[in-house]
Amino acid sequence: MDILIVGSGGREHAIAWAAAKSPKADKIYCAPGNAGIAEFAECVDIKAMEFDKLVAFAKEKQIGLTIIGMDDPLVGGVVDAFEAEGLRVFGPRKNAAIIEGSKAFSKDLMKKYNIPTASYENFTDPEQALAYLETVKMPIVLKADGLALGKGVLICETLEEAKAGVKTLMLDKQFGDAGNEIVIEEFMTGREVSVLAFCDGKTIRCMTSAQDHKRAKDGDKGLNTGGMGTFSPSPFYTKEVEEFCEKYVYQPTMDAMASEGRPFTGILFTGLMLTEDGPKVLEYNARFGDPEAQVVLPRMKNDMIEVMEACIDGKLSDVTLEFEENAAVCVVLASDGYPEKYEKGFEIKGLDKFKDQDDYYVFHAGTKFDGDKIVTNGGRVLGVVAKGGDLKAARKNAYEAAEWIDFANKYKRNDIGKAIDEA
C-alpha cells in the first residue's frame, strides 16, 4: 500500500526509513518532508496543519496508511479529520492527544488514578502563581500547559528566578497561548528515562528504553532544546524498574484514558524520573520522541507498519516487540546559536559517507535542497546515529561519524551518553 507520513524532522526521517523497510510499503509520501526524507519518499508541499489538504491528498492518492509524526497536528485533531473520511491513520484522536497537549490535564489524570508523579499545582492567574511560589521550597519547576516545541519547561533555582519564570510564561507569553495556564511542580532528582510504546486503546507494548539530553550545552547547561542527542537502551532502566512501571504507570495510564472516554491509540511516550522514592512520570507525549525515535527504530526487529496496523485494528495483544541485543547513540548536529538565533543556508558536506553503511545512519531534521546541494534549514540540522555492541562502542562510533559531516556553524554537545560511564 501507499503510505503518507506527516512531518518534516529527524523523527519523520526515521519513520520513513523504517517504513521503507516494510514489505507492506509501496510508494511513500511525506508532507512536507525534508532533503533526507526525499531519499525514501516523495515530498509533498503540504504543511502539517493543513488538514483539509492532507485529507484530500490521501483520498486522491488512495493512501493505505497515514502516519502522523508531529504533536501539533495530533493535538489539533488531524486523526479525527482523517477518520471522518474513512481513512486509515496512525495516531491518537484529539481527545486522547490532550495527554500531551495539556500538562494540567495529564497531571490531574495522574493524581486521579494514582499514577506516580511529582506534587504540583495548576494556575491560570499569575498573581496566585506568584503567591504560591512564596510557600514552596526551591528549586521548583514551571511548565507551560500547552505545546512549546519541547522548550516550555523552566527549572528555577531561586524564588527570584521562579517569579521571573512566571512572568516569562504567563505575562510575556514567550510561548504564546501555551502559557495561559502553567503547572508549578516539585523538582525531582534522579536519572531520566524515555520509554516509547505502541497502544491500541486497551493494550500497550513498550519499546526499548532511551535517554534524551535536553539542554543545549555540555554538562546539561544552557537552555532547553528539542533534544541534543540520545542513547538506547538506558542502563538505569533495570528489569525491576520496568516491572514497576508496567504495573503502576503504563497499563494504568491506558486504563485511565479509556475510563475517561479518551482511548489512546498510537505512540505513548512516557518521560520518567528514577527518583530515590521510585520511578515517577515527568511528562507524556502523544507521538514518537525526537531524537528518541532515531535510536529506538533502528534497533527494532519488527515490521513497524505491521505493528501500527495492529494498533489501528485493536490487535496489539497479538504482537511481541523484539529489539536487537546492541546499543545505539544519536549525536545531534545543530546550527550554532540554537535554540535562540542561528543562521541557515549553509551547504552540508559528507552525507555520502553514510551510503551503504550497515550500522551508521544520518537522519535529517533541518535540511532542504538548494539546487543540487543540501543546505541547513533549521536549528537541529542532522542526527548522526551509530550502533555498537554496547553503549560505549555505539557512543565512540557516533562521535566518529559526526566528524564525517561538515557545514558552517556546526555545533554539537560532546557528552551525549557520558552517563553510560557511571552505570
From TrEMBL:
SMART domains: GARS_A, GARS_C. One of its GO terms (molecular function) is phosphoribosylamine-glycine ligase activity. The keyword Ligase applies. GO terms for biological process: 'de novo' IMP biosynthetic process; purine nucleobase biosynthetic process. It catalyses: 5-phospho-beta-D-ribosylamine + glycine + ATP = N(1)-(5-phospho-beta-D-ribosyl)glycinamide + ADP + phosphate + H(+). Pathway: Purine metabolism; IMP biosynthesis via de novo pathway; N(1)-(5-phospho-D-ribosyl)glycinamide from 5-phospho-alpha-D-ribose 1-diphosphate: step 2/2. Residues 107-313 form the ATP-grasp domain. Its EC number is 6.3.4.13. It is an enzyme of class 6 (ligase). Pfam families: GARS_A (PF01071), GARS_C (PF02843), GARS_N (PF02844). InterPro entries: ATP-grasp, ATP_grasp_subdomain_1, PreATP-grasp_dom_sf, PRibGlycinamid_synth_ATP-grasp, PRibGlycinamide_synth, PRibGlycinamide_synth_C-dom, PRibGlycinamide_synth_C_sf, PRibGlycinamide_synth_CS. Its cofactor is Mn(2+); Mg(2+). Keywords: ATP-binding, Ligase, Manganese, Metal-binding, Nucleotide-binding, Purine biosynthesis. Coiled coil: none annotated. HAMAP family: GARS. Belongs to the GARS family. This is Phosphoribosylamine--glycine ligase.
